[in-house]
Design a protein that fits this description.
globular, alpha/beta, TIM Barrel, 10 strands
Length: 303
């Protein structure tokens, strides 16, 4: 098998992909997929923090050209937006999708169809947006799709609020991890996203992700094949503690980390109730954030 094949194809051949999918699905009987560890029986329709029971809900899917350059390439990133979330960010740019259950429940068979359709359209990857609470359904769908010819990389596009045990289930299944690192201050995390332990969870999760896939590898066509791509949204008033986040990435992950230092914050959701989130960031705030990243020793930035 060619070395540039997605790693999940090797697990498909060995039977390990089927075993992982079954293990993940069975875990829904006492769900601890994410750090909330609700313990509800989702197989029987019980609802935990994520508001999702025994089926994933897809809000939308399609070729997306607004993602990072190495994901988009020439034909787009094959995004699948899952409804609901295991965080409650008051300013979420997809507030209606993340805070509600909007969209259509899908079986693993339908997920497999979506993955294969995106590949047929020429997308460079399958980009799973907000996947943390629906990993078992994703794995079931991936198993079916891979058996029918899926062979493009899997992107795990999460908030960074991910369980270490769940990430270990994804080892050699996910090719590209794209987590957020939202905050460095637990009090800010609790106030703005309702998860006080976010910084420590994200640090552990991102270390695990990088340990699995390493720094981002980009081919001669500028398309990502494997590795870690990290997002950080610059917030007004430095609520995200950008300097500290950048120092952590440089010193505890890798100075070669590919970072999207995002400047597109705009007030959404309930942001108007939480000043200074009621305004966009200023050019000066972004320039300060970019300077902090460079001073930390980071050099690979998405533009």
């Amino acid at each position: 098998m060619a070395e540039n094949y997605p790693s999940y194809l090797k697990l498909l051949e060995s039977g390990e992909l089927a075993s992982r999918a079954e293990e993940a699905f069975n875990s829904l009987s006492s769900c601890k997929l994410c750090p909330h560890e609700c313990g509800v029986n989702r197989l029987k329709g019980e609802i935990g923090y994520c508001k999702t029971d025994n089926q994933a809900v897809v809000a939308s899917y399609g070729a997306h050209f607004g993602e990072e350059r190495p994901l988009v390439g020439k034909k787009g990133s094959g995004t699948v937006f899952f409804s609901s979330c295991n965080m409650r960010c008051v300013y979420c740019q997809n507030y209606d999708i993340s805070q509600k259950v909007v969209g259509s429940p899908v079986t693993p068979e339908i997920l497999a169809f979506l993955f294969l359709e995106l590949q047929q359209q020429g997308c460079h990857n399958i980009n799973l947006v907000t996947p943390s609470h629906v990993v078992p359904f994703i794995l079931k769908g991936l198993l079916l799709a891979a058996s029918e010819g899926l062979k493009i990389p899997i992107v795990y596009n999460s908030s960074g609020y991910d369980s270490l045990n769940t990430l270990k289930l994804l080892h050699n299944i996910v090719d590209i991890y794209m987590p957020d690192f939202k905050y460095f201050d637990k009090d800010i995390a609790k106030k703005l996203s309702k998860v006080e332990n976010y910084p420590e969870v994200a640090k552990t999760a991102i270390k695990e992700m990088h340990g699995q896939v390493g720094d981002l590898v980009i081919d001669d066509n500028g398309v990502a094949k494997r590795g870690l791509l990290l997002r950080h949204l610059v917030l007004p008033g430095d609520l995200a503690s950008t300097k500290e986040v950048m120092l952590f990435i440089a010193n505890s992950i890798s100075k070669n980390t590919y970072v999207n230092l995002m400047d597109q914050y705009r007030p959404c959701g309930q942001a108007h109730k939480y000043p200074p989130l009621d305004r966009p960031i200023t050019p000066e705030e972004y320039a300060k954030a970019l300077q902090a990243a460079k001073e930390a020793g980071l050099t690979r930035f998405d533009s």
